[in-house]
Design a protein that fits this description.
about 425 residues; alpha/beta; Rossmann fold; 3-stranded mixed sheet
């Protein structure tokens, strides 16, 4: 789906629809969702066998039309069109699983609970012999999605230039699109903005941002962190590759009367110049790609003045799972974050040690807070169906976005994913 197409998609939200209730899938916009792949008898049969083997052992209930319920009890997964479901998985693996949901071929009354069970057992879903043959059956990431300077611009635009109005539907008034830090869990919507400010303030405190600090932000978002840093008296240079985000961030900064303290540039991190007292980057490393992690961390090192501090927020996954899936093309990469890859804490530590003069001085994880942040976003997105429809996002997009938010929430609830705040320091050689 191109950015231009996304502006003309219409969306409808609410209770996940069954096939009888689903709007027809637009084949011109969603060619791989509109119809299941041509059935390959052997691959489809193998997929069905693998799925049955996995579901029998899991704490859920899987109901296939015309077949007995599988599983050991728990949240319900209902497959309305087993042949299409198995054909998609047989052809495209987990991409097919997500596309089958987008097509309305399966549903779950509690989608997050069902996906949480699957995420918690991700390493065992595929039998070990097939895991060892992963290179033969798993799709490889397209070379066109590499995060070169040109590729990064296209990849970022695919997601962040969809529509500022779309993101405003489900984000709070701070327009923060990263994990909040709450005082207590479970979280409430009316406390989300405060929790986002708590997250930002914690990062600024880690970086010791204060009056007259010279700050570089890599990944502007919609400008809230730059605003709070400038309100402390800092001078901020913020970099983004999203034109939509740049334009709105500049407007918000001007409205706050802080344009003399904040500059927002359309600039790749590799093109940044100058040195800064502090560097802050929030959930940006996930869009860099393993190939360019050394370049990203070297850029942080090169832009940081001796004695300076870096505050970094990053989503992480287990190291072995990262290694196993590093070259695999995933549903998230195809539809949500092209070129993206979550690092592990070990990968970050290794890259920092081997490619920079930086030191990891502190690391704090708080994945449960991200699960709650995502829940609030998902509920808000679902509740504003009519407004999403008016913006031009269709039912297939709605199912895709709901699956993305639920899939991400499940990752954090299961412990498969975590989010870290890092403090990186650089020794000042001066006496």
């Amino acid at each position: 789906m191109t950015t231009g197409e996304a502006h003309h998609i219409t969306a409808r939200q609410g209770t996940p629809a069954t096939p009888a209730e689903s709007a027809p899938v637009d084949a011109t916009r969603w060619p791989d969702v509109a119809a299941p792949p041509r059935r390959h008898r052997l691959r489809t049969a193998l997929a069905a066998a693998v799925v049955r083997h996995a579901l029998r052992r899991l704490p859920l209930r899987a109901r296939f039309t015309g077949a007995p319920v599988l599983g050991r009890g728990g949240p319900l997964l209902t497959v309305h069109r087993p042949d299409a479901f198995h054909a998609r998985i047989g052809k495209h693996g987990l991409i097919g699983f997500g596309e089958s949901y987008m097509a309305g071929e399966w549903d779950a009354p509690d989608l997050v609970a069902t996906l949480t069970v699957l995420a918690a057992n991700a390493a065992e879903l595929v039998p070990a012999p097939l895991q060892r043959l992963r290179g033969l059956w798993a799709a490889r990431q397209p070379s066109a999605r590499r995060n070169t300077p040109t590729g990064s611009r296209a990849n970022i635009s695919h997601h962040y230039d969809l529509s500022n109005d779309l993101f405003a539907l489900f984000l709070d008034e701070t327009l923060s699109y990263s994990s909040a830090v709450f005082r207590a869990l479970p979280a409430r919507w009316d406390l989300l903005a405060d929790a986002q400010h708590r997250k930002i303030d914690r990062l600024l405190d880690l970086a010791e941002v204060g009056p007259d600090s010279k700050v570089l932000e890599i990944g502007t978002g919609w400008g809230e962190l730059a605003l709070r840093a400038a309100a402390r008296g800092a001078h901020v240079t913020s970099l983004t590759l999203s034109r939509e985000q740049r334009d709105l961030a500049r407007a918000r900064i001007a409205a706050a009367g802080l344009a003399d303290r904040v500059t927002v540039e359309l600039c790749d991190y590799r093109e940044a110049r100058g040195t800064y007292d502090a560097v802050v980057s929030v959930e940006m490393v996930e869009a860099v790609g393993a190939e360019f992690w050394p370049a990203y961390f070297r850029a942080l090192d090169e832009r940081l003045a001796p004695g300076g501090r870096i505050a970094l927020q990053a989503i992480t996954m287990p190291h072995e799972r990262m290694r196993a899936s590093a070259t695999t093309y995933t549903w998230i990469q195809k539809y949500i974050f092209p070129g993206g890859l979550l690092p592990s804490t070990q990968a970050i530590a290794d890259t920092v040690r081997e490619h920079t003069r930086l030191t990891v001085a502190r690391r704090d994880g708080y994945g449960a807070h991200y699960a709650e942040t995502l829940r609030l976003w998902r509920e808000r997105f679902t509740a504003r169906a009519d407004e999403a429809d008016a913006l031009g996002f269709d039912a297939t997009f709605r199912r895709m976005w709901t699956f993305y938010l639920a899939y991400s929430e499940a990752g954090f609830r299961s412990g498969y994913l975590d989010v870290q705040q890092y403090l990186l320091t650089k020794e000042d050689p001066a006496p």
